[in-house]
Amino acid sequence: MGGVLKSTPHFFVVRPMYTVKDIYRWLDEYAPFRYAQSWDQCGLQVGDPQFPVERVLVALDPSSAVIAEASERNCRCLVTHHPLIFQPLRAVRLDVFPGSVIGRAIRSGIHLIAAHTNLDAAKLGTNHQLSELLGLQNVQPLESEDVWREQEQYGGMGRTGVLPESMTVQDVMLLCERVLHARGVRMVGSPDRQVRTVAVCTGSGGGMLQQVIDSGVDVFITGDLKYHEAQRALEAGLALVDVGHFASERLIVEPLVNYLKARGQSKRKPLQVFAAKCERDPFAGHAGIWHYRESN
Ligand SMILES: [Zn+2]
What's the CATH number for 120-248? Predict the structure, then answer.
């Protein structure tokens, strides 16, 4: 009786630290990499899955400045929204981007994981955060893929929703400036027009313009819109608020920091996770200082 249990040696091999692979796995649970668009490049882009990690830096972009910050703060794992390697590489030239940054990451011992369109499509991803900050109600996917629709972590590409109360396009612009700490927000359409129904798409939303027009909402909040897209929206009677690419996506950094921190608590030495401090909207210049909220 109980012989099997008694004779089984019950010791556990506990690895003292987390590895890059653990961080990848947690990101995959938050925003499954299978949700990424077919043209996208996500996942571990530079580094070794088995490398031990004590400190992680989270940022929007894998820029030289961010790599330097990760190195200075002794964060051996860097998690970014934008990928570093996007087009297939034929060579890693250290004098040409992105080889220059790849080389810098390798020399600094930084292991880079990118969570891009998988994070846009995740239930708690970038579009969710934007909808939350705007206080949208009755939030629905703007577009969703049948294959993932029933999955718990899936939220779809873009969102539609309803503002808590009717407001002018000008007020929507001011709301965006306030909640996103954005400068230089642009709008298309009459500033005095009352709007209530909204579509959002973080990053460059121009590719979703037709779906937004078809959805019949009053205003589309996104980043990186082009002149001819603005003309198309005017023709369709759709108001636009362009908050800029940076402001529409930098908002995911804090939630990711908090999530990874919460996941990295089970070992003797808890994982330390930080938000990058050096990032600024490249379009904002000196006028657009993005106010980093210290959370670590
Ligand atoms: Zn983006």
Answer: 3.40.1390.30
Spacing, Cα 242 to ligand 1 middle (Å): 13
Span 153-172, pLDDT tens digits: 999 999 999 999 999 999 99
Confidence check: pLDDT of 9 > 80: no
- Cα 257 to ligand 1 centroid, rounded to whole Å: 18
DSSP string, the chain: --HHHHHS-------SSEEHHHHHHHHHHHS-GGGS-TT---EEEES-TT-EESEEEEES---HHHHHHHHHTT--EEEESS-S--SPPS---TTSTTHHHHHHHHHTT-EEEE--HHHHHBTTSHHHHHHHHTT-EEEEEEE--TTTTT-TTB--EEEEEEEEEEEEHHHHHHHHHHHHT-SS-EEES-TT-EEEEEEEEEEE-GGGHHHHHHHT-SEEEEE---HHHHHHHHHHT-EEEE--HHHHHGGGHHHHHHHHHHHTTSSSSPPEEEE-SS---TTTTTT---------
pLDDT tens for 167-215 read: 999 999 999 999 999 988 999 999 999 999 999 999 999 999 999 999 9
Expressed in angstroms and rounded, the spacing between residue 270 Cα and the centre of ligand 1 is 30
Q: Residue 249 Cα, ligand 1 centroid: separation in angstroms?
A: 6
Q: What is the distance in A from the centroid of ligand 1 to the CA of 121?
A: 12
Measured in angstroms, how far is the CA atom of residue 73 from the centroid of ligand 1? 25
- CATH superfamily, domain at 18-119+250-275: NIF3 (NGG1p interacting factor 3)-like (3.40.1390.30)
